[in-house]
Each structure stands twice: as structure tokens, then as C-alpha cells.
User: Fold this.
Amino acid sequence: RKEVEQDPGPFNVPEGATVAFNCTYSNSASQSFFWYRQDCRKEPKLLMSVYSSGNEDGRFTAQLNRASQYISLLIRDSKLSDSATYLCVVTGNQFYFGTGTSLTVIP
Amino acid sequence: EPEVTQTPSHQVTQMGQEVILRCVPISNHLYFYWYRQILGQKVEFLVSFYNNEISEKSEIFDDQFSVERPDGSNFTLKIRSTKLEDSAMYFCASAPTGLAPGELFFGEGSRLTVL
Assistant:
């Protein structure tokens, strides 16, 4: 069973749209949760940590549901520059990465 | 802003050759990692390193791989006898703390092409 599972997409959305990504994890003892962003052929970069109470950073909102072992990322008012792969990351014995969800924002 | 640096950015090698990938983590970080990403696939954990020893390694990190922190600043990944399937982007990462609530800072990666 994979530690972290994500819908790979691709998601193709128009500018200004709202898009949501989901991620599930298998280890109920996982302690920390993150969303990373990876541009094509570049290194992953931290987008935001995910806290139990949910957290928001501008147009980005992350939610954690420990009971369902589920993490989400909501992007509002999508911009062209949001086009990237979004990686769900969960810690267990080390950092486990999901396969990533590809987003393309279309003009 | 402090950053993780990696060299070389791209290396082409013949199958069976040894390769050393180098990383300079952020100076006050204590935890170091190597990940790899085969083109079009997920980021895969190879190894973590803390207090001058391996703390965790994956099934991928077999006997052909080794890591070293030879001089307190560099963190190297050696692949002893490269195979075609070792072709990938290799990312070094460092973190100031461990898994919780740690954040990984990645270098730009070293692309390895094995012919």
C-alpha cells in the first residue's frame, strides 16, 4: 500500500477558477503534513504546511482530516503562474511524497 | 537567502562507472537527505543522514549507494557501478530539525544520465 496517494490529474482549469486537490495517507501515526509545489524539471519547494485546524495563505487553503487520513489543497482565483505539480508530503519514518497532481491554468 | 547547492547540475556517464554527486546543505541544518526522481515519476526517498550516520534508508539504497559527509560541509552520494535505471534527477535536501515539524529545503538537483 502506498504511503501517500494523490490523483495525478491532469487538472486543466481556466484562469480565475477554483480547484481542489486531495491526498490520502496510510500511516495514522503521521505527524506532519505539507504541500509542495514542483515546476517542470525543478526542485520541489514548500507551498505550505498543513495544520490540524486548517490554514490559509492568500488564495491557498489547506485542510487536514486525521480521522479520514485525508489532506486537501484549495486554490482560489487560479493564476497562470499556479501551473505546476502539487506534491502531498507526509512524515512517517521520513518524508513520504505523493506522485503529485498536475495543474495547468489556461488563459 | 541560504540555499542548498548541488554539483554537478548534469552528469553523463557510461554504465558501470562510478559517480559522485555533491551537495552543500544549509549551514545550520542538522538533517540531510537524498531523493531521486525518474523522469515523469514521483520523488523517491533514498537516504537520510543525521549526526554523521545514516538514520534511514529505502529499499532503493542498496549496496551500490553510499553517502558521506567528509568535511562538515559537503554531503555526497556515491553510486559505485551505475546502471541504466539509475538515470534520474537526484535531489539533496536538508532540514533544520527532524520530521516534526520540519520542512525540507531542496537543492536544484543533479541530473544523471547513464548511457
User: Anything to note?
Assistant: Chain B is about 0% helix and 50% strand. Residues 29 and 96 of chain B are 4 Å apart (CA to CA). The two ends of chain B are 37 Å apart (CA to CA).
